[in-house]
Structures are given as C-alpha cells and as structure tokens.
Design brief:
This protein is of the alpha/beta class. It has 3 domains: 169 residues, D-Amino Acid Oxidase, Chain A, domain 2; 142 residues, 3-Layer(bba) Sandwich (FAD/NAD(P)-binding domain); 100 residues, no CATH class. Helices cover 37% and strands 22% of the residues. The strands form 3 sheets. Strands 5, 6, 12, 13, 14, 15, 16 and 17 form an 8-stranded mixed beta sheet that branches. Strands 1, 2, 8, 9, 10, 11 and 18 form a 7-stranded mixed beta sheet that branches. Strand 14 and strand 15 form a beta hairpin. Helix 1 packs across helix 2, helix 11 packs antiparallel against helix 15 and helix 14 runs antiparallel to helix 15. The structure holds flavin-adenine dinucleotide. The site of flavin-adenine dinucleotide (FAD) has 32 residues, from strand 3, strand 9, strand 17, helix 8 and helix 9.
Length: 475
C-alpha cells in the first residue's frame, strides 16, 4: 500500500471516497459464497416486488421498473445516485436515456453532455497513431445524470435505503430475503425479485478478466496540439507511453470535460484471479508517478475516480447468481465487451430489456439480456492482452499488436472501426478484421493459441468460426 497515494486521494476526494477505495481494494475476485439469512416462508406479504442492490449506474433501472408497476426499493452501502465515475459514449447511444424517459433531450444536450470531440485518438508507444469519429465522443456529467435519475425514481415511489449494506441474501421459490447492516436500516427486507447491481463487489461477480482503473478529473494540464498536451475538442481513447513493464501493459485515456477539466485514467488488463488487495492504491501510486510522462502541465486532481471493471471472455462460464430470482446487471454480470470494458454503453443498451427480464424472473424463469455476438470473438484478444510476454525483447509486443489491429480497422473504413468500438460489429466482419490484422502481424493467431491453450482456443474458434459465422462470411 502506498500511503502517499492514499493521502492524495483523501486530499482530493475526502475521507468517504478513500473509504470506498479501500473497501474495493480489499475485496478479492471470484464468486464469494453470499451470506445466508432466514428464507422467506410463504408467498404473501413481501416488502417489495423488486429490490435493486447497489445504487451506482444500475440505478437507471429503478424508474423503469417503477413505471412498469412494480413496488421498487434500492439498497446502497453509501448514497444511491452519486456518481463515482465519468462516462463517455456516442450521441446515438445516449439517445437511449431519452427514449427511456430518464432524461429529456434538452437535459441531455444542454446540461449533461459537457464536451463533444471532433475525433478520438489511439496512439502507441514506438508505433503509430489512428483516429476515429463518432465513438466515445460525448463526455457526460455523470453526477447530475444519476441525481436526476434518483429524483425521477423518488417521484415514482421508489424507496431508498441509503448507507445500508447487504450482508446476506437467500432466494427460494417465493422470493429473496436480504439481511442488511447500517445505522438506520431495517435488518431484513424481502422481495419477489432482486436485481444485483453491486458491481465488482457483488458476490456473484466472478468473471475471468479484471480491469483495474484509476484516475479522475484533473485541472492544469497543458493545452495544445502536441502529444503531451490536451486538445479540448479531441478525446484520447487509448494511449501508451511505454512497453510492457512489471508484467503489465499500462494504458492511458484522457477526455476533456468542462472547460479546464480533463478526465484521465490509467488502467491495465489482467486475469481476475490475479487481483490482489491493494492493487488500486498501487496503480494510483503509478498514476501520480508517471502522469508527467503522459501529459505536461501542473496537474491537480479535483475528483478521484477508480474501480475494478470485471470482464468476461466468454471462454469460460460467465457470472451467474444460481437462482432465477436474483438477476445480475451491470458489472456484476459482466455482459459488456471484454475488450473495451464499456459498461456504461452496455447498460444503456440493456435499458429496454430490464422489464421483460424482471418479469421472467418473477415467474422463476431466467431470461438473459441480449448481447453482441462480437463478444465471442473479442474475449480471446482481451485474454491475450491480460497475459503479456515477460521477455525483455518482447517489451513492445503489445504496442505493435495494438498498432497492427487499429491501423487495420482504420484501413477498413470509419464504419467498421466505429462498429467494433460500439459492439456492433458482426462475426463475419470481425473475422475479416482478424484476417487482415494477421497479414500485418502473422503471429496473432499463434499468440492467441499459445496464451489460451488448446481447450480455450478451440472454444474460441467454435464460437467465432462456427457454421453460422462461416455462412455469414461466405455471404
Ligand atoms: C474509473 C472508471 C471509469 C469508467 N469509464 C467508463 C466509460 O467512460 N464508459 C463506459 O462505458 N464505462 C466506463 N466504466 C465502466 C462503468 O462505469 C461500469 O461498467 C458501471 O459503473 C457498472 O455499473 P454497476 O451499477 O454495475 O456498478 P457500479 O456503478 O460500480 O455501482 C455499484 C454500487 O453498488 C454498491 N454496493 C457494493 N456493494 C454493496 C453492498 N454489499 N450493499 C449495498 N450496496 C453495495 C456500491 O457502493 C456502488 O454504488 C468505467 C469504470 C471505471 C471504474
């Protein structure tokens, strides 16, 4: 643990935020047996139809469930509807917030979108640079978004249990019993269905990848068009400033927000089982130490934001609650892209599906959220990135791989490039992308096979090159 990094987070974000960081940082990954509590004895008299656990991004589901006529409650260990992140997405993706009536178009365009970029950049240490338009090009003010969602939820009768931590849950054919802890919390709540939005802290968040991410909103970065400067009209989607170090390929991103503010993150891909207590603080120490190598200026951290984003390769069994009445959403279910980790975009796409999924759960039936087929292909690439080579002579391997892949996308044209980053690319197009990348970097298939081993490589190939994908490829 780096006391210096902890002090800096406390100084910028306060004691409660540091507590949140330390809470996340001491959790290990993988299904943790959820605590058990007295099960519900009969069908009648349950407190709520639906209880949403966690009031982070998944809070967006609460007003929609209330609109569908359900009695809804939200249980959150801190305060529900307070954002601890900054999010980016394209305007087309954000329209789903308006279509779901969570915000009006005027609120979205005039209050919540705080910056728009002409294009986004990918820049690789010792290699090339690529640009893309209409992807992650709107910076959203996450705090006001969630505050509005909470306001709407309250207006629709959703009941909030803030500062209440879920300690245990037991599901049976009647519903789910919850044991809560917190000063003014009921010790027990019952619901017909529970929607688990506890993110990476959920006991079911057992996906196979993890993306530790730290950073926050900074001021004082130098403005200009050099690589070490910030341009207010350009988003830096992925940038590296070094090769593989200490067994990791670190990546930066930087998204200008309100005038003078820039959200900057440092992160890396890792296998979930390698998550260690203290990983976030260790990464924060690196963030403070190496930020100057990425951006020039007298940076001040205004608002720290951080977290572990789980990712699921689709090469091993995914997270499941094991009971139809406990529905996993958001990071707990890790249904988003294992390559881009864009959980915000994935949550937006799930908005129209939440009511049918919960209605099925009320009948004791598991109905999965629809998901993009491209995730079956990108998972293997993400697993590859999570296992960087250790030999010094290969230290720039991932930069060369990124450059080969993104320059291939650029050469395929703006639409395919956008489709991959928005999870809209079909399998046939993904296979074309891989094939063209392998012309630039013939080792790519070999690297994947070596890193994944025979079983997972065959599973990947079957998912990707199975009859349906091949038919699509042949036209
Ligand atoms: C730093 C960072 C930046 C990101 N940027 C982007 C981006 O630009 N675009 C994008 O698409 N995605 C982004 N993501 C991913 C995205 O933020 C997540 O996928 C999303 O927040 C997941 O939402 P969630 O509701 O599942 O979990 P969260 O938003 O993490 O919320 C989980 C909530 O559960 C609460 N909780 C946990 N345990 C308990 C308990 N026992 N009892 C009660 N409450 C509990 C927590 O306090 C928290 O409020 C980013 C993630 C991080 C970490």
């Amino acid at each position: 643990m780096s006391p210096n990094a902890a002090d800096k987070v406390r100084e910028a974000g306060g004691e409660a935020l540091l507590e949140r960081l330390l809470f996340l940082d001491q959790l290990s990954t993988g299904a943790k047996a959820p605590g058990e509590t007295q099960p519900i004895a009969s069908e009648g008299n349950l407190d709520f139809d639906v209880v949403l656990l966690g009031g982070g991004l998944s809070l967006v589901y609460a007003p929609l469930l209330a609109d569908a006529g359900f009695r809804v409650a939200v249980v959150e260990r801190s305060r529900a509807g307070v954002a601890h992140r900054e999010w980016n997405a394209s305007r087309a993706e954000l329209q789903l917030l308006v279509d779901s009536k969570l915000v009006t178009a005027a609120e979205l365009d005039q209050e919540l979108i705080v910056a728009k970029y002409d294009y986004g950049i990918f820049r690789w240490h010792g290699a090339g640079e690529q640009r893309v338009k209409n992807v992650l090009d709107c910076a959203l003010d996450a705090g006001p978004l969630l505050a509005k969602v909470r306001e709407r939820a309250e207006a629709k009768g959703v009941v909030f249990f803030d500062h209440c931590s879920v300690q245990a849950e037991t599901a049976n054919q009647y519903g789910v019993a919850l044991a809560l802890r917190g000063e003014s919390c009921p010790a027990r709540l019952t619901a017909r269905v529970v929607v688990d939005g506890r993110g990476s802290a959920s006991p079911y968040a057992a996906a196979d990848l993890i993306c530790p991410t730290v950073g926050g909103v900074l001021q004082g970065l130098e403005v200009g068009d050099g690589p070490k400067q910030i341009q207010p009209n350009v988003g830096e989607i992925l940038v590296t400033t070094e090769g593989i170090q200490a067994g990791r390929q670190h990546l930066w991103e930087a998204f200008p927000g309100r005038p003078g503010d820039t959200t900057v993150y440092l992160f890396y891909y890792a296998e979930a089982h390698t998550r260690r207590p203290g990983a976030l603080l260790e990464l924060y120490a690196r963030f403070f130490d190496t930020l100057g190598g990425y951006k020039a200026g007298q940076a001040t951290l205004l608002r720290p934001t951080f977290g572990f984003i789980p990712g699921w390769t689709r090469l091993s069994p995914g997270p499941t609650s094991g009971h139809p009445r406990i529905v996993l959403v958001g990071d707990a279910g890790a249904r988003h892209s294992p390559l881009t980790f864009c959980g915000f975009g994935a949550t937006l796409r799930a908005l129209p599906q939440i009511v049918p999924v919960v209605e099925a759960a009320l009948q004791g039936v598991v109905r999965s959220f629809d998901e993009a087929s491209v995730h079956r292909g990108t998972g293997a690439l993400a697993m590859l990135l999570a296992r960087p080579p250790s030999a010094q002579r290969q230290a720039n391997d991932w930069n060369e791989l990124f450059d080969a892949a993104f320059s291939t996308l650029e050469s395929m044209g703006p639409e395919p490039f956008q489709r991959l980053l928005r999870d809209e690319m079909g399998e046939a197009e993904f296979i074309r992308f891989l094939t063209r990348t392998s012309v630039k970097r013939p080792r790519v298939y070999l690297d994947v096979a070596r890193q994944l081993g025979l079983g997972r490589t065959m599973r990947w190939g079957a998912g990707l090159f199975g009859p349906a994908a091949l038919r699509a490829q042949l036209g």
